[in-house]
Design goal:
The structure is a homodimer of 409-residue chains. In chain A, strands 7-4-6-5-9-8 form a 6-stranded mixed beta sheet, with no helix packed on it. Chain A folds into 4 domains: 10-26 and 183-328, Molybdenum Cofactor Biosythetic Enzyme, Chain A; 29-50 and 156-182, Molybdopterin biosynthesis moea protein, domain 2 (Alpha-Beta Complex); 56-144, Molybdopterin biosynthesis moeA protein, domain 3; 337-408, Beta Barrel (Beta-clip), CATH 2.40.340. Chain A is elongated. The first copy, chain A, has 409 residues and is an alpha/beta fold. Chain A is 20% helix and 32% strand. The first copy, chain A, starts with 9 loop residues before the first helix and ends with a strand. The first copy, chain A, has 7 helices and 28 strands. At the A-B interface, α2, β15, α3, α6 and β22 of A face α2, β15, α3, α6 and β22 of B.
């Protein structure tokens, strides 16, 4: 057993690890766009038609030939002959000439001969047949041309995009009612440690409940992965090796959620090495917390050894597992981040990235981050933290008042 | 038909509206904590026991009586007698005296008589029975006391909290395997407008697909609500009234996604008024886009009239519907927000809040927001926007370089 791990800087560890991750999507399913929100698109979406497909008004008012209004003013309005009203959804047969107009609502089809719409606020009905226009409009004003919004054949949404409500609107508009979305990887979560008992059991003195498996499970789910709990394995070489090998065969990724006994760490590492090439790429990352992290790939499947402290485990999950799941699905990671100003000095050391839990509050319209200082295994610190700030490895700390970025839970 | 709506400032509209929303949770279900991620907690969670429940080491090293190490240095180490090794998960029977120690791993139970742990890096084995300690430790150092993390009876998580991975860890640690979470409201989405066709149909000239129903559906889902599409109703007074009344009976909230014909707006308003008291509270909000918004409550159920433009519809959803859903579930709205610097001047007018789509990019480590300018009905503008910035109603615009907050889609 070596007491001192050789620590790799975080960015270097990720770069070395990520080249072995097979970029997806590997599996996809076709879903109705109603069910596609927050999913990763597994295909490119090309517009099958011009949109809106007809010249469309963007205002309530009167469709006109713009030149009929040139020079119009409140003192000298242009008087136009009203040829009718365009009904919504109607393919109008009207054709307008000079000094003619037709009533139109927002979204209505601009008739032949017209090239602009005058807003209703700038018009007055003189009688049933005559409209006075008090402002001129330019050709194209308040009109979207037939191909102006989206031309047929345009790449609208690329594979890998996380679909948001406006994207769903665009898919609906284009008449794409179903899309292929990436199916998340099957991720096995194995808990190791003789001190662990299941959360349904009552721990004896010396024992604790297996909390990390559940937070990791939920974090995998939130990333779009398909987690499975493989239970608690006792600190014994053969048992660890067997369960890791089985989970590796049946899953796309494996997470070994670390207990903290020294022997078990070695068993874990050896069991991961035995899975196949290239094996353990990184054991020890220059971050705090999260130092004893293992990053491995075997037969194309990522395998992670996560530290036993609950906050460390989540920090390492966010740094390495979440982006690996996103890559596997062919997307990019969506981080919930915000900016804040730090309310206290926080010391660090050169050569190590520190991740510090913070609680956010708003004061005078500004977001402030209060560092949460607790003992490292504390559960109380978990529930009061809104997110985590990073202190880069090239500074000795950050100062009160500095603007920082916070990754939110 | 009135051309000019009486416009209410956004904050005032919300204040007037929200007092009629019945704060929830109204319905809850019991779920395994595995399935509770991002759910709204529908009960307070009080710790049923002390945690960790025993004095626990936070480091790998040796458990000691701190006073045995006082004055220890590299030049003059304290020599301690090794009494044994504490195994993980074991309720140790050891009792340490002065000048004695026991090997312990992180998470191990600190034995009787010991009050601190010396990190392994500060110790050296002289022989099988003797450990040299080169640094002193203070009482309590590297140890979490039995009740120190969480005392039994502590309110750990309050009703209304959105559960995040660290909360799931805390629930697991406390032995709370199931929690009550809020069930979202049933939200009916009714589309009005003679120009609309279903997304499975091919529109004729003058017609467009009913895109807003789908983006609103997905946005409701993302907020935790239970959306249901009630289809497209034609611009005809009786048809609108009937479907709104039926949806109101069968749902907890109703959204009428506006077409754009003028007659239909009046039918919608009248139909909502007919549902019951207090009826339409707001018709017209001083925002752009989103002016023709209707906010109503009938028989305790919120009813919304959303504008027909796709981006307007989403802006109004985020401002009024999303927080109403959160209140109904007894939680607070979680907005995905970020800060950015604006890359161009954007004009507005006093007395109106403007909501402008922006695209985000990172340059020199700073997040910049580029305003997306498109014609108001544009679908192309939807897919290229990362979020929306607000220009308050008391300024004439925001300037290039200003720091702004962006609500992300």
């Amino acid at each position: 057993m070596s007491l001192f791990l050789s620590l790799t800087p975080r960015a270097e560890a990720w770069d070395k690890f990520k080249q072995y991750i097979k970029v997806g999507p590997h599996e996809s399913e076709t879903v109705n766009i109603c069910d596609a929100i927050d999913c990763i698109l597994a295909e490119d979406i090309i517009s099958p038609a011009d949109l809106p497909g007809f010249a469309r008004s963007t205002k309530d008012g009167y469709a006109v030939r713009a030149s009929s209004t040139f020079g119009a003013s409140q003192g000298l309005p242009a008087l136009l002959t009203l040829r009718g009203r365009i009904r919504m959804g109607e393919q109008t047969k009207l054709s307008l000439g000079q000094h003619e107009c037709a009533a139109i609502a927002t979204g209505g089809m601009v008739p032949e001969g017209a090239d602009a719409v005058v807003m209703i606020e700038m018009c007055e009905a003189i009688d049933d047949e005559t409209i006075a226009v008090t402002h001129s409009v330019a050709p194209g004003e308040n009109v979207v041309g037939a191909k102006e919004d989206i031309a047929s054949g345009t790449l609208m949404l690329s594979q890998g995009r996380r679909l948001r409500p406006p994207d769903i609107a665009a898919l609906a508009a284009m008449g794409v009612p179903e899309v292929k979305v990436a199916v998340g990887p099957k991720v096995a979560v194995i808990s190791t440690g003789d001190e662990l008992v299941d959360i349904w059991d009552t721990p004896l003195p010396g024992q604790v409940r297996d909390m990390n498996a559940y937070s990791i499970y939920s974090a995998i789910k939130a990333c779009g992965g398909r987690p499975k709990l493989w239970g608690i394995v006792k600190d014994e070489s053969l048992a660890i090796q067997e369960i890791i090998a089985k989970a590796h065969r049946e899953s796309d990724m494996v997470i070994v959620s670390g207990g903290s006994s020294i022997g078990e760490r070695d068993f874990t590492r050896e069991s991961i090495e035995a899975l196949g090439d290239p094996g353990v790429l990184i054991h020890g990352v220059a971050i705090k917390p999260g130092k004893p992290t293992i990053l491995a790939v075997a037969e194309g499947k990522p395998v992670f050894g996560l530290p036993g402290h609950p906050m460390s485990s989540l920090v390492v999950f966010n740094l390495f597992v979440a982006p690996a799941i996103a890559m596997w699905m062919g997307g990019t990671l969506f981080r919930r981040e915000t900016q804040a100003r730090l309310s206290a000095n926080v010391a660090s050391i050169i050569g190590r990235e520190d991740y510090v839990s913070v609680k956010l509050r708003i004061e005078d319209g500004e977001v402030w981050a209060d560092p949460v200082f607790t003992k490292s295994a504390a559960i109380s610190g978990l529930v009061c933290a809104d997110g985590i700030m990073r202190i880069p490895d090239d500074v000795e700390g950050v100062e009160k008042g500095d603007r920082i970025r916070v990754t939110l839970f």
